Amino acid sequence: MSKKAQNTTARRSERFPSKEDMTSAGLNCVNFNLRRASRAVTQFYDRELEQAGLTSQRFSLLHTLGASDGLELSVLADLLVMDRTTLLRNLSPLEELGYVSDIPSDTKRARKVALTDKGLEALRIAYPIWEKAQDAVISAMGEDDLKRLLKRLNSIVRKRNFKEFSKENPS
């Protein structure tokens, strides 16, 4: 093989990883595996919460708001690690159902939302269904593994800038 052909082949292999490289990347990619696991868990909770007329995303919004007296959108978006546009798109159906409404904000410029009585009722119906689903997940995972997983996931959320991410004690 000529020197030019070898250089072309070398450049091409740099640009186009092998199938083995791609398989290894997929198996070891944090993003790929977290998203895949997230979809599996979301699908499970969605199936369970369907009997209450909610998705897992809507339930998450309702219970986050239910744990407060209302939240400004910027605070809610930060808690859920969601951009404002996505948050508004997810809040819209809950507003249409009458589960969430605007309330006065301490700062006149910020929009603040809270659960309505209808939203609290939806949460009251959905909560036991969620508890049953949660118990099934805990039973399948084991309580110790779940605690370790939640600790690591919360650590990731707190340290969103991975340039500063450092391994904590895996206790």
From TrEMBL:
Q: What is this protein called?
A: MarR family transcriptional regulator
Question: Is DNA-binding included in the keywords of this UniProt record?
Answer: yes
Q: Which organism is it from?
A: Leptospira langatensis
User: Residues in domain HTH marR-type?
Assistant: 27-158
Bias kind Basic and acidic residues: ranges: 11-20
Q: Record's InterPro entries?
A: HTH_MarR-typ, WH-like_DNA-bd_sf, WH_DNA-bd_sf
Which stretches are tagged as biased composition: Polar residues?
1-10
Q: Could you tell me which residues belong to the region Disordered?
A: 1-20
Query: According to the lineage, what is the superkingdom?
Result: Bacteria
| Keyword flag Lyase | no
Question: Keywords, A to Z?
Answer: DNA-binding, Transcription, Transcription regulation
Q: What are the protein's GO molecular function terms?
A: DNA binding; DNA-binding transcription factor activity
